[in-house]
Amino acid sequence: MAKEFNVAVVGATGAVGRMMLRVLEERNFPVRSLKLLASERSRGKRLPFKGEEIPVEVLTKDSFSGIDIALFSAGASRSLEFAPVAAESGAVVVDNSSAWRMDPDVPLVVPEVNPQDIADYKKKGIIANPNCSTIQMVVPLKPLHEVARIKRIVVATYQAVSGAGQKAIDELVAQTRAWCQGEPLPEPRVFAHQILFNALPHIDVFLENGYTKEEMKMVKETKKIMGDENIAVTATTVRIPVFYGHSEAVNLELEKKLSAREARDILLQAPGVVVVDDPDNQRYPLAIEAEGRDEVFVGRIREDESVPAGLNLWIVADNLRKGAATNAVQIAEVLAREYL
């Protein structure tokens, strides 16, 4: 009989938490029992899972007795407080927040890129899920790096509002509805400015170096996941009025020249990658086509003619799925299959 696991989802009522439940069900993860945990304000809610309505319990330090795997998506402060408690109780934590990503004793994992690092979970009982925009970028970059060695990455992101949570989705809905009805737009509460018909080069807080925290996450996390501190990375992250699906314009400078055809052939064989690259027929990755999918879509593959060895790519993925929930469940699948 296949082994089954007692699973907890922390932050179950949020956008990513709900998606975790959906992905666990879709991928038929071997769940023996499921515990849904959230804050006091979610007490009494019930969420669907495999035809049942599972009650949401209030997160406490006593919530993890008997839990094998705890999927966290409740924000950094909650993770800092409760992830060690869950680990001490015997659970392996897969944390979607930024809290543990750069801890040297916590592996930061994208299963298509560095699944071997999962073995290091034993140090603290915690595995970090990377930032959404980092995940989708490194999936296609890793196979290119193995062949041609990436020297430098320049990335500009175009990120959906769902990356800022349910309240951000609601804000775009409210502004859209008001505009369609010819009414004054409600004042922004989640974003610093109106998001409808706009592009905001401002995700997370600004740091002393002029970059945002989101941009520096991409810089630091890419190096850790790829296992190469010598890769130079610079990023500009932008929020756009799309509900689901992050898009990225990525420029690579390589040590070894690759033609666009060679890069395309490598990516066609890469795990988790779908190549959509037929510009003559207007075929390239689109956010609306990536929504609901777990793969990373790559197109507009072309040589950078300004350097001896370089490429340009357009990379798109569903930020709630591969950028968060699916990646976390994939990590749990490796844990279940190889370690627990």
From TrEMBL:
Keywords of the record: Amino-acid biosynthesis, Diaminopimelate biosynthesis, Lysine biosynthesis, Methionine biosynthesis, NADP, Oxidoreductase, Threonine biosynthesis
Binding site for substrate: Q159, R239
Reaction it catalyzes: L-aspartate 4-semialdehyde + phosphate + NADP(+) = 4-phospho-L-aspartate + NADPH + H(+)
Entry EC no(s): 1.2.1.11
Pfam families: Semialdhyde_dh, Semialdhyde_dhC
One GO term of the biological process aspect: lysine biosynthetic process via diaminopimelate
Pathway(s) annotated for this protein in UniProt: Amino-acid biosynthesis; L-lysine biosynthesis via DAP pathway; (S)-tetrahydrodipicolinate from L-aspartate: step 2/4; Amino-acid biosynthesis; L-methionine biosynthesis via de novo pathway; L-homoserine from L-aspartate: step 2/3; Amino-acid biosynthesis; L-threonine biosynthesis; L-threonine from L-aspartate: step 2/5
InterPro entries from the UniProt entry: Asp_semialdehyde_DH, Asp_semialdehyde_DH_beta, NAD(P)-bd_dom_sf, Semialdehyde_DH_NAD-bd, Semialdhyde_DH_dimer_dom
Top-level taxon of origin: Bacteria
Gene3D superfamilies on file: Dihydrodipicolinate Reductase, domain 2 (3.30.360.10), NAD(P)-binding Rossmann-like Domain (3.40.50.720)
Binding site for phosphate: R101
Binding site for NADP(+): T13, G14, A15, V16, R41, S42, S162, G163, P184, N319
Location of the active site: C132 (acyl-thioester intermediate), H246 (proton acceptor)
GO molecular function, one term: NADP binding
Protein family according to the UniProt entry: Belongs to the aspartate-semialdehyde dehydrogenase family.
Role played: Catalyzes the NADPH-dependent formation of L-aspartate-semialdehyde (L-ASA) by the reductive dephosphorylation of L-aspartyl-4-phosphate.
Subunit structure as annotated in this protein's UniProt entry: Homodimer.
Protein name in UniProt: Aspartate-semialdehyde dehydrogenase
Protein source organism: Thermosulfuriphilus ammonigenes
Gene designation: asd
